[in-house]
Design goal:
Keywords: DNA-binding, Transcription, Transcription regulation. It comes from Flavivirga aquatica. This is Transcriptional regulator. The chain has 344 residues and is of the alpha+beta class. It folds into two domains: 219 residues, Sandwich (Jelly Rolls); 112 residues, Homeodomain-like (Arc Repressor Mutant, subunit A, Orthogonal Bundle). Helix content is 42%, strand content 22%. The protein is built from twelve helices and 13 strands. Strands 2-3-4-5-12-7-10-13 form an eight-stranded antiparallel sheet, with helices on both faces. β4 and β5 form a beta hairpin.
Amino acid sequence: MSKKLTIRDLEASDVIKDMADILNINFDVKHNEYCLKIPKKIGSGYIKATCFDNGIGVLESDYLLKKELHFEHKKGVVHPLKIMFNRESSFEHEFTEDTETHAINRLESVMISRTPTNNHIFKIPANTQICTFSLEINRKLFEEKIESFISNMNEELVHVFRDLNGINKFYYKGHYSLEIAKLIEEFTECDLEEDFMKSVFLEAKANEILIHYLQQYLDDLNTPEKRKILRQSTIESIENAVKIIKDEIANIDSIAVLAKRVGLNQNILQSGFRHLYNSTVKEFIKNYRIEKAKELLENSDLNVTEITYRIGINSRSYFSKIFKKRYGITPKAYLNKSRHNKSA
């Protein structure tokens, strides 16, 4: 049976204070940071809040619970706009007055806002590592700073950010970018010891993450093949495609089949390879074949014909042509040279 914690969330620090009060435990405070360690009787890990003066706060969490737990936020006149990034395992979100449940999966982000009566509920499963990073924006306090972000917003976003009292419900889910993932890592791994410098650095990073998220939100409005920002999940799929190419170079599938295997359409796969490797998929495969052939010529006992088939090329003459074009020497001559040097 799940346990429910009802907590305030006007400020990020409220989450820490209310959890500590309910669980009857202490929490640590240093300058503008509040950290609660999950007691061993219910799990392990921590939840940390960092508060800044302009209405923006950050909630970090990395924990595992022994039993399922539901976090329900208390009703309030003012409540934050949440931009949450899931860095690890899936959990669920729902609004108290709705019947729909939303799964928030690894590498997904959500921007959510409740109304004064329609509260958030976050359902955290048992024995599952949860790792999240959330921007908590008090839109009343953030109002003055909104103007500096307006140029990055469309009409819908402007409406969300200027809904100062949270009258309207809002929910948007997508995958976050590699750049956002890097910025989150820089925030969470900051090792500055001086309080003022650390606070300035973290606030700047929080604002930078917000700007990148707004840019990504607008990029999401494009069709997948026209998006300019690579999502972290897309990069992992592309890296999986690279692994498949290297592991199966002798009998590699067509690009269409490769794209299907990693869960991308061909246009996104090609765009990702151009972005990460400055080449098309076909060029990447060709280059890897030549590099792998050079490695085998240097370090194996295979002959040129055997190496030709080992790298997935059926024509020895074609292999000799592309190898010589790259290295200025035929595979046969390179093989003889390499083995002569070894025996010398």
